[in-house]
């Protein structure tokens, strides 16, 4: 586990399963159809129960690079923010879309005035975003947001395997070394 403080807000990098984390909002790496799927999406819907899928069906769709909020069903959270990251195809717009997915969740956090949020590593599973490119975008977007006034007190990155945790730790170290965090 790694912790770092930005402007009084705790940033935590930790290996684990996001469905077990006690925070106000859990972020899901969803697809644009909000249709559920494998990976973290499947795990969250299984743990949350059917009410969350019902809410997703009512919302309908979410554009890539954005996010929508639902309740959290049986999860120990108030909200799930369903964020849609890009499928990595090296077309050029992926960094903006990935940053947009994180930023949309941070905006929802401010809108709902929540104190804690947990992110998975959006797009780096089935969507194929290279970890060494995705990790600095995820961290930079969060850190830049925390440098302004915020309702957030804790931001967790819950990383499923050792390889993903190490990529985020390395990216944070590089951002700190380069003076961006
Ligand atoms: P995407 O389609 O956005 O790539 P995936 O769910 O396939 O989403 O993968 C995103 C990341 O989430 C991967 O690093 C994967 O290992 C991780 N992951 C899978 N299950 C969980 C879970 N329960 N908690 C946290 N992270 C998870």
UniProtKB/TrEMBL annotation:
NCBIfam families: PRK00431.1-6 (NF001664). Residues 1-176 form the Macro domain. Coiled coil: none annotated. This is O-acetyl-ADP-ribose deacetylase. SUPFAM superfamilies: Macro domain-like. It comes from Dictyobacter formicarum.
């Amino acid at each position: 586990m790694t912790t770092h403080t930005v402007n009084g807000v705790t940033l935590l990098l930790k290996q684990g399963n996001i469905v077990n984390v006690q925070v106000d909002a859990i972020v899901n790496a969803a697809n644009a159809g909000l249709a559920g799927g494998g990976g973290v999406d499947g795990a969250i819907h299984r743990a949350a129960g059917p009410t969350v899928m019902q809410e997703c069906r009512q919302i309908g769709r979410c554009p890539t690079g954005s996010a929508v909020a639902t309740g959290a069903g049986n999860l120990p959270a108030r909200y799930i923010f369903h964020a849609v990251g890009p499928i990595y195809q090296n077309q050029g717009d992926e960094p903006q879309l990935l940053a947009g997915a994180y930023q949309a969740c941070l905006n929802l956090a401010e809108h709902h005035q929540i104190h804690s949020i947990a992110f998975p590593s959006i797009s780096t599973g089935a969507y194929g975003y290279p970890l060494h490119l995705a990790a600095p975008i995820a961290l930079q977007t969060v850190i830049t947001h925390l440098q302004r006034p915020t309702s957030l007190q804790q931001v967790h990155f819950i990383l499923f395997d050792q390889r993903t945790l190490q990529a985020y730790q390395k990216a944070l170290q590089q951002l700190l070394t380069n003076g961006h965090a």
